[in-house]
Every structure is written in structure tokens, then in C-alpha cells.
Write a structure and sequence with these properties.
Elements (H helix, E strand, L loop, with lengths): L7 H42 L7 H6 L1 H33 E2 L3 H7 L8 H12 L4 H10 L15 H12 L1 H13 L2 H9 L4 H30 L2 H5 L5 H11 L3 H32 L9 E2 L4 H31 L5 H33 L3 H10 L7 H27 L11 H25 L3 H9 L4 H12 L1 H17 L2 H6 L7 H10 L3 H31 L1
Parallel strand pairs: 1-2
Length: 559
């Protein structure tokens, strides 16, 4: 039997196939490794939670924990109801009717997303407190002398915190409800009118039942953010699970208890996330196939009522707090100095590094799952739920894995060099960037996956047929086509990191402050005038991507 060597072109083709297969396998293995790194804090949280803290459990169960859980539940209920009402009515008005200012209000109603809730809390607390301008004006007008002469609600209560969070978070409901109202078929509205229903009756009995999944999804997102809030509730002195975690960890030095409270808060956030995802899937089922009817024109004084109902939420949630911050900044006459410049540099460099790393990892993971197996796509979806993890819970979960990795590195370096080494990750900037990656990877994944879905699969198949590996196809074909998507994803993550407070406050290195941390510390010291300038900078920078995405969404819905 004579051995006949294979033709050279066949050997080259086989080598190219093996090279492509190896490249795709390497890319998928890298994506799996990234996913495991991102999921490590959840395992660390569970490990910390099951450490011994039984001695404190009986007293805590009967004293502190019921208050924490009760306040958290009450806050969640108030926020859910509030955002459902405030977000739904303007969404219905701008989607179904034509009135003065509608085109501007359509995107202006989204701007409160650029206003961190804790910044809004500082502005309103200063304005409405006893020594603030509002009550001082009332006393001057009516001749009141002391607090006992009149009654005024205290903003630093659970109700005040709920009101602030409602104003900051109602856009979640507004955005989803508006899309649902725009996609409702004209036949539904016409059937309601034929049945003799008025406009409000059509809203209550026809439009809202159809849009209910979208409203519930938006309310679930708002509740998830409200439960994760730390700055507002701590400034108002409201004991919730987030403030309980902070007090258990730093006040009592009880990390296991903080982890147990964190698991409870994480479970609540996951429930909200599951409700949101289930509601979104039901919302897709309700989308109508017929064209939505044209907007009805509102005449007489009702159009000014519609204008007021739409203008009030965005004014109270964005414009008024900005004006109050400007007033505080001008009154304090604080001049920008080297300290303010240092804070800005810290914040911007940290946010930029975290945004670039997050988008880089999101691109690799989304691209690897594009042609990957179902388990890889499921793993990506699991990692993308990191935005459901509150910042304080994330900080608790990161502590143990970071410490174990730090000790392993130190032991390895000591074995190699024979010298003692300090801990390098714990309390460093790298740990903070890692926390941002876990927290905001979902934002990057959602953006990148949306951009990849718009690219024709045939382009990728053509590149692979020419011998390109997975990495080469990504670098030479997809990345140039994803420039706009990646830039927008980087900007969104940048702003989220810039606004983030709990994880930054807990995990930042010693003597390393950011704008968000400085605003919080100054506000807790009641130095609101000094806190106004960095707070304004955060809001103005955050408003840029919110404005861009809002205008793009409006054009897409009407295009």
C-alpha cells in the first residue's frame, strides 16, 4: 500500500479550519473566564453570610431587622405606586394627544434619570427644612414666630425619601409606558369611544390594562433602584436594609451580619428583576400590528392642564433641583481650587477606566455568545444582571474574594523574592474598578448585543470562509461597524460610574475621594453650599447621554 500525501491546498484548508476552530474556542474560554470572575462576588457574599454570627441573631431579629425590613417594604410599595402614577399619565398624554410643548416634554420627561436621587435629596432638604427659604418665607408672610405656631411636614422621613425617589425614578415607567401606548392599535381606542367611554375612561379601562406589563416592568426597575439607594435614606435618617448593611459592617464590625442583610436585599432585587423580565415578555405579546391612530388635538383650557401635568414631573425631578443647586453654589461662593480639580480628575479617570474595561469585556462576551451555545448565552444573561446587585451588597461580596486573591498573590511573591509584600488589591483602585465592572456589565452587554444583532450574519460567515479567526473577525469586521454603539455604551457606563455612591464610598482607597463621595460627605456635615458645585458637575455630565438617548428614542419611535 503506497502512502499518497494530501494536496497542499487541502492541507492548508485543514490548517485554516483548525486555526479558526482554535481561535473561536479560545475566545469562548476567555468569555467563560470573565463570566466566572464577574460572578465571584455573589459566591463571596454567600460565604460571608454563613459565617458564625449566632450570638447577635436573637436580639437583632427582635429589634433592628424588623424595622429594616418593614421600612424597606414600605419604601418599595410607595415608590412602586408613585412611579406608576407619575410615569403613566404623562406617557399617555404625550403618546395620544397634541398640545403645546409636547415635542419638548417628550424627551424632557426623561431628564430626571440624570439627577442622582441623593443629590436631589440634598437640594430639597435644604429648601424645605425649618431654616430653609421656603419655611422662612412662610413665617415672614404669616407672622409665625416658632415651630409650634404652624405645622409643616418633615421632609427627612420615610415619606420624604419615597417622594425624592419617585421624582428621580418615574422615567423608568414613563419610557416603557410611552412605547406601549404608541404601539397600541387604533382599533382599541376606537372601540372604547364607540362604547361611549370618555378619554379618562378609555385610559383606565382600555389603555392601562393593555400597557400593564410595561408599567409593571418600569415599576419593578424603579423599586430595584429604590431598594439599592443609600445616599437618600442615610441622609434622611431612614433605617432600611442598605443603611443596616452599612451600620452592621462599619458600625459593629459584623461582616457576616452585613452579608446576611445583603443576601436579603439581593433576593428582593432579583425578585424585582424577574418581575421586570416577565413583564417585558408579556408586553411583547400585547404589541399591536395595526398602525397607531394619530394624536388627538386638545382644545380650550384642557391643553394647558395636559401641559402642566407633563411639565410638573420633569420640573420637580430635574429643573427645580438644578436651580436649587445653583442657588446654593452662588450663595456659598466656593471657588474651584486644586482640591476640586483633583476630585474631578479622580472621578473622570476612574469612570473612564471602568467604562472602557466594561465595554471591552461586554464586547468579548457578547461576540463569543453570538455563535456560541445556549449555556454561554445563559451565562452572559446571568452576568448581565449585576445591575440588580446594590452597591453595598456588591462591596460585601467583593471583600472576601479580593482578600483571598490578595493573600495568594502576596504568598506567591514572598516565595519568589523572599521579602514581605503588602496587600495590593484590597483597598486599591483596581478593586473599585472591578466592582464597577460587575455592577454595570449589564449596561454594556445590552448595548453591544443590540448592536451585534443589527449586523448581517453573512458578513461574519464570509470572513470565516476567508480564514479569519474569531478575534480577527471581531477586530477587522465588527468593531468598525460597532463604533457608534460602543461609544454610546462607554458613555452610559461612564455616567453610571460617575453617579455611583455606595460601592465607591465603601471600597475607595484611603484618601481617594470622588465627586460623588465628596458630595455625600459634605452633605452629611450639612455643608450643602460646598457640595453644590460637585453635585452640579455630576448632574450636567450625566445629562448628556440621557439627552442623546432620549432624543434618539423619540426619533426612532416617530421615524
Amino acid at each position: 500500500m503506497t502512502f499518497c500525501p494530501a494536496p497542499a491546498d487541502q492541507v492548508q484548508a485543514t490548517n485554516r479550519r483548525d486555526s479558526r476552530r482554535a481561535g473561536w474556542i479560545d475566545l469562548r474560554l476567555l468569555a467563560i473566564l470573565l463570566a466566572l470572575i464577574i460572578l465571584a462576588p455573589v459566591l463571596g457574599l454567600a460565604w460571608n453570610a454563613f459565617q458564625s454570627s449566632a450570638a447577635d441573631a436573637p436580639a437583632l431579629v427582635t429589634t433592628i431587622i424588623p424595622e429594616l425590613v418593614g421600612n424597606s417594604v414600605l419604601l418599595a410599595v410607595c415608590v412602586a405606586l408613585g412611579v406608576a402614577v407619575i410615569g403613566t399619565l404623562p406617557a399617555w398624554l404625550v403618546a395620544q394627544f397634541e398640545f403645546p410643548g409636547r415635542r419638548v416634554l417628550e424627551w424632557l420627561l426623561v431628564l430626571p434619570l440624570a439627577m442622582p436621587a441623593y443629590v436631589m435629596a440634598y437640594a430639597y432638604a435644604d429648601f424645605f427644612q425649618y431654616a430653609g427659604p421656603f419655611q422662612s418665607t412662610l413665617r415672614e408672610w404669616f407672622g409665625w414666630q416658632v415651630r409650634s405656631d404652624y405645622w409643616f411636614p418633615d421632609i427627612r422621613t420615610l415619606g420624604g425619601a419615597a417622594g425624592i425617589l419617585i421624582l428621580a425614578l418615574y422615567p423608568y415607567v414613563y419610557v416603557l409606558a410611552r412605547v406601549s401606548f404608541l404601539e397600541q392599535p387604533a382599533a382599541l381606542m376606537e372601540a372604547g369611544r364607540i362604547a361611549g367611554l370618555g378619554r379618562l375612561a378609555v385610559l383606565w379601562r382600555v389603555a392601562i390594562p393593555v400597557a400593564r406589563p410595561a408599567i409593571v416592568a418600569g415599576a419593578a426597575l424603579a423599586v430595584m433602584e429604590a431598594l439599592a439607594d443609600f445616599g437618600t435614606v442615610s441622609y434622611f435618617g431612614v433605617m432600611t436594609l442598605t443603611t443596616g448593611i452599612f451600620k452592621a459592617w462599619f458600625g459593629q464590625g459584623n461582616l457576616p451580619l452585613a452579608a446576611q442583610l445583603g443576601l436579603a436585599l439581593l433576593a428582593a432585587a432579583v425578585i424585582c428583576l424577574l418581575i421586570e423580565q416577565a413583564s417585558r415578555s408579556r408586553a411583547k405579546y400585547h404589541q399591536g400590528l395595526s398602525k397607531a391612530h394619530p394624536r388627538a388635538t386638545i382644545h380650550s383650557r384642557k391643553r394647558w392642564v395636559a401641559l402642566a401635568l407633563c411639565a410638573l414631573p420633569c420640573a420637580m425631578g430635574f429643573l427645580v433641583p438644578v436651580l436649587l443647586l445653583l442657588r446654593l453654589a452662588l450663595r456659598a461662593q466656593v471657588q474651584p481650587d486644586l482640591a476640586f480639580l483633583s476630585l474631578s480628575i479622580h472621578s473622570f479617570l476612574l469612570a473612564l477606566a471602568a467604562a472602557m474595561l466594561t465595554v471591552f469585556c461586554a464586547t468579548l462576551m457578547a461576540y463569543a455568545a453570538r455563535k456560541g451555545s445556549a449555556p454561554l448565552r445563559w451565562l452572559n444573561r446571568t452576568c448581565g444582571t449585576g445591575y440588580a446587585i446594590p452597591g453595598l451588597v456588591l462591596a460585601v461580596g467583593i471583600t472576601l474574594p479580593a482578600l483571598l486573591l490578595d493573600r495568594a498573590l502576596v504568598n506567591l511573591l514572598e516565595a519568589w523574592t523572599g521579602h514581605a509584600w503588602p496587600l495590593m488589591l484590597s483597598g486599591g483602585v483596581a478593586l473599585l474598578v472591578y466592582a464597577y465592572l460587575v455592577r454595570f456589565l449589564g449596561v454594556g452587554l445590552q448595548s453591544v448585543e443590540s448592536g451585534l444583532a443589527k449586523i448581517t450574519p453573512g458578513i461574519e460567515d464570509a470572513a470565516r470562509s476567508l480564514g479569519a479567526t474569531g478575534g480577527e473577525t471581531l477586530r477587522r469586521v465588527h468593531l468598525p461597524m460597532l463604533r457608534g454603539t460602543l461609544a454610546m455604551a462607554t458613555l452610559l457606563v461612564f455616567v453610571d460610574v460617575l453617579k455611583e455612591l455606595p460601592a465607591t464610598f465603601v471600597l475607595r482607597p484611603f484618601n481617594f475621594d470622588t465627586l460623588a463621595v465628596r458630595v455625600y460627605t459634605l452633605a452629611m456635615d450639612e455643608r450643602l453650599g460646598e457640595a453644590a458645585a460637585p453635585a452640579l458637575l455630576i448632574v450636567l455630565v450625566a445629562a448628556i447621554p440621557v439627552y442623546i438617548t432620549s432624543r434618539a428614542m423619540v426619533r426612532r419611535l416617530h421615524g
